[in-house]
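Morning. Coffee machine broken again, so started the prediction first thing and wrote up yesterday's gels while waiting. Chain of 214 residues, entered below exactly as on the submission form.
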Amino acid sequence: EAITDALARTGLKRAQVEVTVVSEGKAKMLGLIGGEDAVVEITPKIQPLGDVSPEVKSYIEDSVNKLISLAELDVTVDAFDDEGTLFVEINGADSALVIGRYGDTLSAIQTIVRAIAFRKFSQKLSIVIDSEGYLKRHEDKLRDFAIRTAKEAQRNGEPIELEPMNARERRIVHMALASISGVSTESTGEGRDRRIVIYSNGKGKVAQSRYDRR
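Came back before lunch.
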């Protein structure tokens, strides 16, 4: 029901989105008392490029090079296709400047390039921009942090509130903890303040945990 409601609100079809179950909810006692609604997050699927033509690859690579040239950074840009996703690697002496604080600059470049690609090809394309393997390291670190925090919540029997995260980071945490028994996650807050609360089977005051993005 939660998925149906979310699709109705957005006007999207089930095949067009990825669904993350934040909370399965609880049934009402005797059908009348208590209970909690289920909570889900839906994310529109990015359409794969399929077999990336040399023209598309060249266009995206050239777009990234133009952005980089404006900042006069000492890096190289290489693009390659992997199962329908176009990966763009930016490496070199100024890689740290490309990544930025907590990956903010890298994320901004990716957003701009995806917008350029959408304007050119009139469809959302699966484009991932990385530098020196930052995204992979960041995702692995975030998963490890989420699992450690979930174990702490289980050990103390109290929920733990994480600091605000962007949508991609929240999805990584939800997915990392989805298969852990006795733990559930819920996204709360609005906009930049949106964050995840990790619940164990126990009850208690919500503690806070900070994720070191360095």
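Helices lie at 2-10, 54-71, 95-99, 104-121, 134-156, 167-177. Going to sketch it on the whiteboard this afternoon.
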